[in-house]
Amino acid sequence: MSEYQENSVVESIERLADALYRLTLHAPCIAAAAKPGQFIMAACGHSLDPLLRRPFSIHQAATSGTIQLLFKVIGRGTNLLSELRPGQSLSLLGPLGHGFQLPPSGPLCLIGGGIGIAPLFFLATKWLQQPRPPESCVVLLGSRTAEEIRQLATDFSELGCLVGTATDDGSLGHHGLVSDLLPPFLSDLKQVCTCGPTAMMAAIAGLCRDTAVPCETSLESHMACGLGACLGCAIPGADGHYKHVCKHGPVFNAEEVAWSR
Amino acid sequence: MEPLIPPTDLDLQVAIGPLRLANPVMTASGTFGYGAEFANLVDLNRLGAMVVKGISLEPRPGNPPPRIVETSCGMLNAIGLENVGVKRFINQKMPFLRTCLSRVIVNILGDSIEEYAFLAHELSGVAGIDALEINISCPNVKKGGVAFGTVPEMAAAVTQAVKRETDLPVIVKLSPNVTDIVAMAQAVEQSGADAVSLINTLIGMAIDARTRRPRLANIIGGLSGPAIKPIALRMVWQVASTVSIPVIGIGGIGTAEDAIEFLLAGATAVQIGTANFYNPGATEQILTGIEHYLRQQGETSIRAIIGSLRLGV
Fold first, then answer.
1. Which of A22, B10, B185, B250 is at a distance of 20 to 30 A from A164, taking alpha carbons?
2. What is the interface pTM, i.e. ipTM, of the complex?
3. Which residues of chain B make contact with A225, given a CB cutoff of 8 A?
4. Is any Cβ of chain B less than 8 angstroms from the Cβ of A74?
């Protein structure tokens, strides 16, 4: 496994919704090595405040040498990222962590909630590199409002996925939880891959366990290094031991995680 | 401008008591894992020494999350001394460390004087270990939980117990959470410490005003990073001006200029800590920067700048 400290160059930054951005970066070393589910640590800003890099899952990696990050402005780090303009540089560390393990054949269901949708696009892209029918890649997206997922739902459809949506306010698709959309598909699925709020992933992990469908979950945590050195990103494991999101994860089999915490 | 003195002619060697280092740049315990974590990003053979994550007798699980929080120009951590324990350290981590050319220093921690002594004994015969660093910032469970590092007599007792069990050079890592760090340094010097390293983290706290909750599950934690540098520099200067054993400077060092300030204040070597997190290349950049500084200053030896702070007119 190779990791790089790479000075990337901003190719473009798109505002997809109010506080939702998609950043395209030229980072050939990281792009070539990245696997779906892995993440990078980005040094937001050029000063000592904020001090630490921020973890972002890789939204897309292309053979042309670019990667994409999907992020929502929630604090100082992401606010600095949103101010980046084409031609500016961004120091990245990656690709880091352990990505999604996939079965040899589908169908697969990818379930993303909010900004947790980010790593699923790279995953769907890789999965559909082999010719597969849309039913082999069911994508269920949830968010608070239509605005946050409209563009992403289109992108997944254009990729060749079968897309379902759910919003808290009913402005797009199912009015309710994205996990409500899963049960009709469960009996046929070979695997579920999910990333989003913990409560959402816990509910999905429970549904998968009840029907014996393997479930891969991508977790997040505050972390200082992303390399397994600071040990700041501990989460309780099902075996009673702490696991580190940066090294053991960020993608865990749902059975490895203690969801009721 | 071309360098007047070629890099190969620079003498960067320093001595930490009986331990000779190729250069004064070390990694601080708890910020560099067991070395292997950085192998893809740093040339581990270039470092003066690696101080590995603190080791206890038994594996420790660490504290519940959240364990870290960012603060202004710094971070708080309450990792809870999570480590693999001495047996797994020797069996699983030392084989890789033995392949590195840099010196390996093992940081040890315990709940009692006996535990420190036993760890020193266990690690002494292990090939590839060049020195021990004692973390005395832990609570003494048998003595009501008062940290070894806050009472000079207790710090002295730990130092003596470790020295009795090992022939390895012993560095005592001092806590800044004391009234008089010079008294602590003197106490461990008199007890046979070969060197002192300072400072460990400063105890701090962060609160989320919105939720009215502490940001760390442990409520309080250790502050590190650039925010603590002026305090660390002051303490290093005070200690280095008083004791005769070598002082290793730690605290917020992120650039060559930071490291040089500690050397000028009297530190014989420096440890890079939190900077490894936000800039994994920090150690090598600092080493290169120190070489550049020596050439600029027309010095051929690192030892010419150690303690060369100019005072008065």
1. A22
2. 0.95
3. 31, 37, 276-277, 280
4. no
